[in-house]
Design goal:
By secondary structure, the protein is mainly beta. It is built from 3 helices and 27 strands.
Length: 470
């Protein structure tokens, strides 16, 4: 049975990114499959199709106020939990029982930083190695090197390497991918990021050609006066004219309870943008997504395609029942169902994927996540997993007090505040610290009303708390 598109990758969107950005709900596999089908039918080159898919995939996340990881090896999603995520097992339903299918095993340092991720496939008898990712960090606990290896002839063989550089504010500046060829690492692609007051506005992608970097594509993002994404344009580099040609863009519109993202592409190559698809996303009074509809532009009108509905959430707002629907020309027909459970720390425990059998839901895949303190390469002494953070008053209109305890001295204490779009709005501490009670103040008067996140990062371990500005 075929897995839903992005089934494993989706798990990472359910965790709160290290940088304190908004917690993302699930990205509908049916939605992405619909987009791929639509793009595949377009009269454009394969290179442009790849760019369209990448652009739209990113825009889906941005529309929800979230950020998609730049890390193809998945280091971001395994540093989130109060106890480290050390195993993810996916099982397939054979009609009578659950059968092992795939497994990820993770290891960490005593500080909670991911060291490795081993991906394995069930051969019917035992787990077989398939892919290994290992990670290295700088002094601030940021991942600077990720190495991917494949299992061949009973040994790990280098495959690809990712290199990152950050600025003093821990913003990602550069992201380079290399491949292993002839016993050495060879450059393949590079992305450089430009920021405006901590917000990413330009992503420039380059390819390694004849021992030099050559422009490939770039993405330009604009924001309105409320800090929301206004437009997102991807451009191809024309080496003949040495200029950028826009090939796809997304324009966003907002109301208090909904947003619309319209995707347009230049199919003719002469600067005439034609609509491709649009997504209509609806939110509740707590700014949580309730429904998202994808529509195709056909013969001058918008036609329903697929629909994603968050049918149930738990007491703290995490989605527990998510349903995909497809439009049959008359009505919405259910297709996929995801049922998620969480532990007391809001970490995802299980994700059950079912498909509609015409009259009832039928099991397809079950993913189970396991957490704990699993260390590698250092002493097995477990770090303290709670700083007993207290933030008050919240909601607030003026100053906020942030109290927390450090069980031991910290070589690096970093405390920052982020808004819903992941933009850093304040740095409250960036220093070493003694043990004991810590008290910091944040003046919220200078920021608009809304939900903000306070991220406390201590020697590789992070916790995030929210605060409401009225």
């Amino acid at each position: 049975m075929k897995k839903p598109l992005l089934f494993l990758v989706i798990i990472s969107f359910l965790t709160l990114p290290v940088s304190g950005q908004k917690k993302c709900d699930r990205v509908s596999p049916l939605k992405m499959q619909s987009v791929m089908d639509d793009v595949d039918a377009l009269p454009v080159s394969e290179g442009q199709k790849d760019l369209y898919i990448s652009h739209i995939e990113q825009a889906f996340i941005e529309q929800a106020g979230c950020v998609m990881s730049d890390d193809a090896f998945g280091v971001d999603q395994i540093q989130q939990a109060d106890g480290e995520l050390y195993m993810v097992i996916t099982e397939e339903w054979d009609g009578a029982s659950w059968v092992n299918d795939e497994r990820n095993r993770y290891s960490h340092t005593a500080e909670g930083l991911a060291v490795s991720n081993t991906f394995q496939i069930w051969n019917g008898v035992d787990w077989e190695n398939d892919f290994l990712s290992t990670f290295e960090y700088n002094d601030a606990g940021l991942p600077v090197v990720s190495v991917g290896q494949v299992w061949e002839n009973q040994m790990w063989i280098n495959n690809a390497r990712l290199l990152r550089t950050f600025d003093e504010n821990m913003l990602l500046l550069e992201f380079t991918r290399q491949e292993w060829e002839n016993e050495e690492w060879v450059n393949e692609s590079n992305t450089m990021y430009t920021y405006d007051n901590g917000v990413r506005t330009v992503s420039l992608q380059r390819s390694w050609v004849d021992s030099m970097w050559v422009n490939s594509t770039q993405t330009l993002t604009e924001f309105d006066d409320q800090g929301r994404i206004f437009s997102n344009a991807s451009q191809f580099w024309d080496s003949a004219s040495e200029s950028w040609n826009e090939v796809i863009r997304t324009d966003y519109e907002y109301t208090d309870t909904s947003s619309v993202a319209v995707f347009s592409g230049d199919f003719l190559g002469i600067g005439i943008a034609e609509p491709i698809i649009r997504t209509l996303t609806f939110f509740d009074e707590n700014d949580r997504e309730t429904e998202s509809i994808v529509q195709d532009y056909l013969n001058g009108t918008w036609v329903n395609d697929v629909r994603f509905v968050v049918e149930e959430r738990n007491a703290i707002g995490l989605p527990t029942r998510n349903v995909d629907y497809a439009w049959d020309g008359v009505s919405w027909v259910p297709t996929n169902l995801f049922i998620d459970t969480y532990d007391s720390d809001s970490d995802l425990l299980t994700s059950l994927f079912q498909q509609w059998g015409g009259s009832t839901w039928v099991n397809a895949f079950l993913t189970t996540l396991s957490y704990g303190v699993i260390t590698t390469g250092v002493a097995d002494e477990a770090p303290v997993r709670s700083m007993d953070i207290s933030i008050y008053p919240t909601p607030t209109v003026h100053d906020v007090t942030i109290d927390f305890d450090l069980a031991s001295p910290a070589a690096r204490l970093n405390v920052e505040v982020f808004d819903l779009l992941g933009r850093r709005v304040a740095v409250l501490a960036n220093r070493s610290s003694s043990a004991g009670l810590q008290r910091l103040q944040w003046s919220a008067e200078s920021v608009p009303a809304g939900l903000y996140f306070v991220r406390i990062h201590v020697d590789g371990y992070s916790e995030v708390k929210s605060v409401v500005r009225l």
